[in-house]
Amino acid sequence: MPLSCGRCCWTGRSAALQPDSILAADLLGISVSTLSRRLRRENTTFLKLKSECQHDIARQLLRHDTLTMAEIAARLGFVDARSFRRAFHDWTGVLPSAFRANPGSAVR
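RE: above sequence
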């Protein structure tokens, strides 16, 4: 099974639960260099996969009105809500507040 198949590697519950490449390699029982080499073979990187996971989880969390932008940002490991807003806009072309208001809207 390719390493990039299981895209979301954490649930977004806590910044402390976010994986880094060292933890991911350890969980897979391989070295960091082997992980990097295998991901390169699939034309991706750990950071790219992590960003895709953050994007997917952000969209899920934004559908729940009970979480503030700051709470979502913290769960995804962003320093603050502003950093999260900037990343979400880069991913989708819309601000998180606009997505939350209309989650069915077409986004990148």
